[in-house]
C-alpha cells in the first residue's frame, strides 16, 4: 500500500499505509494530532508543547524517499500518557543532565532538589537528579507564543522553589527551519528573581535512516565525528562526574576526534564495557568541545559534531555556542517503545516496529555536566544566573546534507 505525503508543493510517494496525520501544510494551528508544523524547502518539522519537543523531522534520503529521522510519538496526547519518559526531543530544564546528590551550594546556602535517578533501597526516589527533577521542564506543557510557516516559539515560566530550585526562571525556545536544510534552535532563559543554576539542551534522538534500513535497525553503521572533543568528563559507576577531566587518546574507545568513526567500531574497542556506567555497554558520556578562543561558533571550521549514515546518505552536521557535548547510544532502549507511523519498514516483517537497543543516538549540546558542583572547572559564569547578570543563551544549528 502506498499513500501520498505532501512536503511543500511536491507530492511524495511514501511506501507506507495511511499516515496518522494530515499533510503538514501551514494553517497557523496544530494539526489533528496536536502537532505544530514548520517548513522550508526540503525540510519539515513538527513540535508539541509537551517539553517544547520536536516530534518529527522529515527530509529526503539519497533515493528521494522522505525519512523521519527523530524519535517521538504519533500525537501530542501520547506525550502525557507515555510512562517510560525517555525525554524524546524535549528541552530538559532547568538544569539538564545529572546533579550529584541532588545538592548544590550557592553563596554558602545548600539547596536540596528533588532526586529522580538511581534509586536505592535507602533512597527510593534516587540519589541524584536527572534533567531537572521528576517534574522537570520536559514533563510540562510549554506555551506556544508564536508560530509561522518556518518557525515556532515556546515559553515556560518555572516558579520559585519548583523541584527545589531557587527563584523563578522564564524561558523562550525558538525553532526554525531554512531552505539550506537547517534546523536551528535558540534557547534563552532569565533568572527573574534569584540566583539559580540554568543549563538546557535539546534532547533529540536520531536515527538517520528513519528506522527503515532493511539491513540493520541499529545505528552501529552510523559514523560520528567530534573534531574538538579530545577530552571527556570522568564519571563514577552511576555517571556522576568525579571532577576528573580525562583524555580520549587517539585510537581508544572515546576517540571520535581523530577521524570520523563508525559507532559500531567503538563497540569493538577496549573499555566499551562499563563506559556508560557500571554494567552498561555503550556511550552515555560528556565530551568537552575545545575550540581555541576567541572563535565564531558559526564558522565552517568550528563544527562540533557530525553524524552520517551511508544507507540513507543523510548527514547531520552540528554547530553550537556550547562547550560540551553528550552522546548517548540508546543503551537503555529494549524494544518496548513503538516506532511512529512515519518510521520503519511497513512492507517487511524483518524488524519489529519498535526501537531496539542501540537503535538511536542522542546528541546534546550543553555545558560541562554538573559544573555547579565543580567550581574548579570555572563554569559558574555559564551555569549560574541572576536578575542583574547575563541571560542564559544556547544556540544550535543542525545542518543536513545528502551524500550520494
Ligand atoms: C510554507 O513553506 C513551504 C516550504 O518553503 C512552502 O512550500 C509553502 O508554500 C509555505 N506555505 C505557506 C502557507 O506559506
Ligand atoms: C497516539 O500515539 C500513540 C503513540 O505514538 C499511539 O499508540 C496511539 O495509537 C495514537 N493515538 C491515536 C488516536 O492516533
Ligand atoms: C547529600 O544530600 C543530603 C540530603 O539532601 C545532605 O544531607 C547531605 O549533606 C548531602 N551530602 C553531600 C556530600 O553533599
Ligand atoms: C534495501 O534497501 C535498499 C535501499 O532502499 C534497496 O536498494 C535494496 O533493494 C533493499 N534490499 C532489500 C533486501 O530489500
Ligand atoms: C554500512 O556502511 C557501509 C559503508 O561504510 C555500507 O557500504 C553498508 O551498506 C552499510 N551497511 C548498512 C547495514 O547500513
Ligand atoms: C524495557 O524497558 C522498560 C522501561 O525501562 C521497562 O518498563 C520494561 O520492563 C523493559 N522490558 C524488558 C523486556 O526488559
TrEMBL record:
Signal peptide feature range: 1-20
Record InterPro entries: Aldose_1/G6P_1-epimerase (IPR008183), Gal_mutarotase_sf_dom (IPR011013), Galactose_mutarotase-like (IPR047215), GH-type_carb-bd (IPR014718)
GO MF annotations in UniProt: aldose 1-epimerase activity; carbohydrate binding
Isomerase as UniProt keyword: yes
Source taxon at top rank: Eukaryota
A Pfam family hit: Aldose_epim
Keyword match Membrane: yes
Annotated TM spans: 36-59
Keywords: Carbohydrate metabolism, Isomerase, Membrane, Signal, Transmembrane, Transmembrane helix
Family: Belongs to the aldose epimerase family.
PANTHER family given in the database record: 1-EPIMERASE, PUTATIVE (AFU_ORTHOLOGUE AFUA_3G13240)-RELATED, ALDOSE-1-EPIMERASE
Name recorded for this polypeptide: Aldose 1-epimerase
Amino acid at each position: 500500500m502506498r499513500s501520498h505525503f505532501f512536503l511543500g508543493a511536491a507530492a511524495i510517494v511514501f511506501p507506507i499505509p495511511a499516515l496518522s496525520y494530515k499533510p503538514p501544510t501551514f494553517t497557523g494551528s496544530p494539526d489533528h494530532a496536536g502537532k505544530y508544523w514548520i517548513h522550508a524547502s526540503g525540510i519539515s518539522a513538527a513540535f508539541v508543547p509537551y517539553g517544547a519537543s520536536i516530534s518529527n523531522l522529515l527530509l529526503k534520503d539519497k533515493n528521494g524517499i522522505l525519512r523521519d529521522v527523530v524519535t517521538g510519538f504519533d500525537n501530542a496526547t501520547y506525550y502525557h500518557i507515555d510512562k517510560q519518559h525517555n525525554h524524546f526531543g524535549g528541552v530538559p530544564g532547568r538544569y539538564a543532565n545529572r546533579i550529584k546528590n541532588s545538592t548544590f551550594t550557592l553563596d554558602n546556602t545548600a539547596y536540596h532538589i528533588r532526586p529522580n535517578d538511581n534509586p536505592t533501597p535507602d533512597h527510593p526516589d534516587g540519589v541524584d537528579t536527572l534533567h531537572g527533577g521528576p517534574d522537570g521542564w520536559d514533563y510540562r506543557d510549554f506555551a506556544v507564543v508564536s508560530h509561522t510557516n518556518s518557525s515556532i516559539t515556546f515559553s515556560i515560566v518555572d516558579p520559585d522553589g519548583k523541584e527545589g530550585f531557587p527563584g523563578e526562571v522564564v524561558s523562550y525556545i525558538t525553532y526554525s527551519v531554512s531552505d539550506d536544510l537547517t534546523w536551528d534552535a535558540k534557547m534563552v532563559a532569565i533568572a527573574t528573581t534569584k540566583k539559580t543554576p540554568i543549563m538546557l539542551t535539546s534532547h533529540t534522538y536520531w536515527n538517520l535512516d528513519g528506522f527503515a534500513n532493511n539491513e540493520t535497525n541499529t545505528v552501529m553503521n552510523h559514523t560520528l565525528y567530534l573534531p574538538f572533543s579530545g577530552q571527556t568528563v570522568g564519571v563514577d559507576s552511576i555517571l556522576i562526574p568525579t571532577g576528573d577531566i580525562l583524555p580520549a587518546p587517539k585510537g581508544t574507545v572515546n576517540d571520535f576526534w581523530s577521524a570520523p568513526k563508525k559507532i559500531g567500531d567503538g563497540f569493538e574497542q577496549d573499555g566499551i564495557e562499563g563506559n556508560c556506567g557500571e554494567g552498561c555497554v555503550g556511550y552515555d558520556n560528556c565530551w568537552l568541545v575545545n575550540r581555541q578562543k576567541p572563535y565564531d561558533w558559526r564558522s565552517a571550521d568550528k563544527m562540533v559534531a557530525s553524524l552520517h549514515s551511508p544507507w540513507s546518505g543523510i548527514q547531520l552536521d552540528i554547530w553550537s555556542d556550547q562547550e560540551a557535548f553528550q552522546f548517548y547510544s540508546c543503551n537503555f532502549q529494549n524494544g518496548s517503545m513503538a516506532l511512529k507511523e512515519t518510521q520503519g519498514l511497513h512492507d517487511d516483517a524483518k524488524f519489529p516496529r519498535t526501537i531496539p537497543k542501540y537503535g538511536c543516538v542522542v546528541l546534546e549540546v550543553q555545558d560541562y555536566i554538573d559544573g555547579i558542583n565543580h567550581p574548579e572547572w570555572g563554569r559558574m559564569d555559564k551555569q549560574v544566573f541572576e536578575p542583574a547578570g547575563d541571560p542564559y543563551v544556547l544556540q544550535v544549528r543542525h545542518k543536513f546534507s545528502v551524500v550520494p
